[in-house]
Write a structure and sequence with these properties.
The protein is an alpha/beta fold and 329 residues long. It folds into two domains: 5-136, Rossmann fold (3-Layer(aba) Sandwich), CATH 3.40.50; 146-299, Rossmann fold (3-Layer(aba) Sandwich), CATH 3.40.50.2000. It has helices at residues 17-30, 51-54, 83-95, 146-155, 157-161, 183-200, 214-222, 241-247, 258-266, 281-292, 318-328; strands at 5-11, 35-43, 63-66, 77-81, 101-105, 117-121, 133-136, 167-173, 203-209, 228-232, 250-254, 271-274, 297-299. The strands form two sheets. The chain has a seven-stranded mixed β-sheet, sandwiched between helices. It has a six-stranded parallel β-sheet with strand order 10-9-8-11-12-13, with helices on both faces. The protein is globular, with a radius of gyration of 21 Å.
Length: 329
């Protein structure tokens, strides 16, 4: 099947960036040889309510602004990621494009009715096995656009000026999805990455994504014996994570978030992950697949204290996914 008319829906909030990237990647591939429409959806403050409350609120009450759809006579497919955006996709299908199919990325818990297409992680805890389900090893990620890299690098250029030489990016997931980054973990981790930084004569760029308690943060800082910059996200502060990703030659990851790990792997830089017994089984399953795939390497307390160069293998075959979607249509 070729010549598809594809409508990609994007959210405007900052936390939608990774969801929007997944939508862009799939929609662009599906529309290859056809037509791609891009629309950004603006919601009001009510969109921040928990999903179980949003599920009973009419979607038109959530909309602050939406691009005009008059330039679209019809579409074959709507591509959307994120359960709140899916709510709007179902709304416009009902009122504007009743014959279209929705390609939903992730969120099997709120999977839409049959005859639509769900793309979910192979490692998902909630197993959804509908006939129109496409299973992938990781989330759909691609290399961050050079323009975005440049904008963020310029915005946080003063951080880079405080350090010299090459960098190792260290990205720590906060207290999310019942994952605890303990003081013991933080102490061992800080000592290991300090040794690596010394041995490789490189500085560390450390970003915390989420929340950590003060004791854990203090344990990290007290055991870092090398040149580093430490960023802890505060209220209303923008994270320099993308700038750190751009500047770093290597990545070291410590967390429990599959979406983030998929994005780091997609940048094509040597990526290492530090695991603890507190990691969830779902995350460990994802990492096991990633290691077998050649996408990531394990960093442990008894590992060599030097990182080695390798090119991560991408986790997803976008063309293959696109072909499966077209065959379902």
């Amino acid at each position: 099947m070729s010549g598809l008319r594809v409508l990609a829906l994007f959210g405007q909030m900052k936390h939608c960036r990774s969801d929007n990237e997944q939508t862009r990647i799939i929609a662009t591939e599906l529309a290859n040889g056809g037509t791609l429409y891009k629309k950004e959806i603006f919601f009001n403050i009510f969109i921040r309510l928990p999903y179980f409350i949003l599920s009973i609120i009419p979607v038109w009450l959530l909309i602050k602004h939406v691009d005009d759809f008059k330039d679209i006579e019809d579409c074959d497919v709507i591509v959307v990621s994120g359960k709140k955006m899916i709510k709007f996709a179902k709304h416009i299908r009902h009122y504007m494009f009743p014959n279209t199919k929705i390609v939903q990325i992730g969120n099997p818990v709120c999977a839409i009715r049959k005859n639509d297409i769900l793309i979910r992680q192979e490692t998902s805890r909630f197993i959804y096995t509908g006939k129109n389900t496409i299973k992938v090893n990781g989330l759909l990620c691609d290399k961050i656009d050079d323009t975005i890299y440049q904008e963020n690098s310029e915005k946080f250029s003063k951080i880079k000026e405080t350090l010299s030489g090459d960098f190792i990016g260290v990205f720590i997931g906060g207290d999310r999805y019942r994952y605890k980054f303990t003081v013991y973990n933080a102490t061992a981790f800080a000592k290991l990455i300090s040794k690596i930084a010394h041995n490789m004569q490189m500085s560390l760029l450390i970003a915390i994504d989420g929340k950590l308690n003060k004791e854990t943060i203090n344990a990290l800082k007290q055991n870092l014996d090398c040149s580093y910059y430490f960023f802890e996200k505060q209220k209303n502060t923008e994270s320099p994570k993308i700038a750190f990703m751009n500047w770093s030659k290597y990545y070291i990851l410590h967390g429990n978030i599959i979406n983030d790990q998929s994005e780091y792997i997609a940048q094509g830089k040597p990526t290492y992950v530090y695991l603890t017994k507190e990691n969830r089984k779902r995350y460990l399953h994802f990492i096991e697949v990633a290691v077998k795939n050649g996408s990531i390497r394990i960093l442990s307390d008894d590992s060599e204290e030097v990182l080695k160069d390798f090119v991560p293998t991408k986790m997803n075959d976008i063309k293959n996914i696109s072909e499966q979607i077209k065959s379902m249509l």
